[in-house]
Design goal:
Shape: elongated
Number of helices: 4
Radius of gyration: 15 Å
Number of strands: 0
CATH architecture: Up-down Bundle
Order of helices and strands: HHHH
Strand content: under 5%
Helix content: over 70%
Amino acid sequence: MFWRVIGATAAILTMFSFVPQIARSLRTRSVKDVSPVTLFQLSTGVFLWIIYGIYLKDPIIITANLVTLASLAVLLFLYFKYGRQACR
């Protein structure tokens, strides 16, 4: 039980780690402080964690990484949306 709580807590912290960056990007309409290399690298790692979670049949790993990947997808969308606006 203790380890499940540790895993769930880690999952919650990870799932919502990009919410502040998303909120800031939406508020400022700027992504100048966002690294695209980091976003792609982290997205790949999170995707691989999903595959690993499926292999282990671990719902905490799968869910946490699906939510994290979704938030990274939003941030990537904002990066391309606002990054192109800055070039105009």
